[in-house]
Design a protein that fits this description.
- There is one protein chain.
- With about 290 residues, this protein is of the alpha/beta class.
- The chain contains 8 helices and 9 strands.
- It holds the Pfam family Copine.
Length: about 290
């Protein structure tokens, strides 16, 4: 397929906002790339007045959902029918065993004759949330594979080209999965930083980051009680930082979980401009 067949990986710092504005990778994009990702200097952490607007507008989005459709309803009730979607897919090694119960002991990323849990999740999200994305251009990223670990993300297409709708996202997912080697550890910080950079470049347009993952952020056995692992700390810091921007983060769980720790994780995140992190406590299984 030419250029689209390669899988670039980038350091998450390349996407985060900085004193110099949004990263130049988006400023030098091909003509087919959406203009809403053009570089925009000066859009850093919001000023107090803008912070207050964020809190008033987005605090109505709750954090107790059981389905993607409930998220859709909450966004509509908050007046966010014109949201822009960003998708992040978890390619950590735990996907090889977290389908023991829900996916007949198969890897959650297995590509076969029937849709795997990630394919089902992408399809379900596409049916319920695609109407919210005006231009239907969806930046899609992966994280946690052997080329990115917990430090970077990779774009589904070179030059950060977005997918044209969820059907193309699903097609591209199927193309790249066989080329990947699952790794880890799990951190949501790089994909959140990436989404912050995108939201920062668009002059206040509201974005929803959809993270599809098989489990919680890595917490090593040697992490003491009451302490945070580096991955937990990085993810918390990124979530708090993201609350300064018009960005909500929705974690969609696939496989066996566990998910209870992610709910506790959300509840214990320090003060944010608004509650910007939601966990959908459902299991997308091979029976759906």
């Amino acid at each position: 397929m030419g250029q689209k067949d390669s899988k670039p990986s980038y350091n998450s710092a390349d996407y985060g906002n900085s004193s110099n504005g949004y990263n130049s990778r988006y400023a030098n994009t091909p003509s087919s790339y959406s203009p809403r990702y053009a570089s925009s200097a000066g859009h850093n952490v919001q000023q107090p007045e803008a912070q207050a607007r964020l809190q008033r507008k987005y605090s109505r989005i709750g954090d107790d959902y059981r389905s993607v459709s409930q998220v859709t309803e909450a966004l509509a009730q908050a007046g966010l029918e014109s949201s822009n979607l960003i998708v992040g897919i978890d390619f950590t090694k735990s996907n090889e065993w977290t389908g023991k119960i829900s996916y007949n002991r198969r890897c959650l990323h297995d590509i076969g004759n029937t849709p795997n849990p990630y394919e089902q999740a992408i399809s379900i999200i596409g049916r319920t949330l695609s109407a919210f994305d005006e231009d239907n251009l969806i930046p899609c990223f992966g994280f946690g594979d052997a080329s990115t670990h917990d430090q970077e993300v990779f774009s589904f297409y070179p030059e950060n080209q977005p997918c044209n709708g969820f059907e193309e996202a699903l097609e591209r997912y199927r193309e790249i999965v066989p080329t990947l080697r699952l790794a880890g550890p799990t951190s949501f910080a790089p994909i959140i930083e990436t989404a912050i950079g995108i939201a920062d470049s668009t002059g206040g347009q509201y974005h929803v980051l959809l993270i599809i993952a098989d489990g919680q952020v890595t917490r090593s056995v040697d992490t003491q009680s009451g302490q945070l692992s580096p991955q937990e700390r990085g993810t918390i810091d990124a979530i708090v930082k993201a609350s300064h921007f018009p960005l909500s983060i929705v974690l969609v769980g696939v496989g066996d979980g566990p998910w209870d720790m992610m709910h506790k994780f959300d509840d214990n995140i320090p003060a944010r401009s608004f509650d910007n992190f939601q966990v959908i406590a459902i299991q997308i299984t091979c029976n759906l």
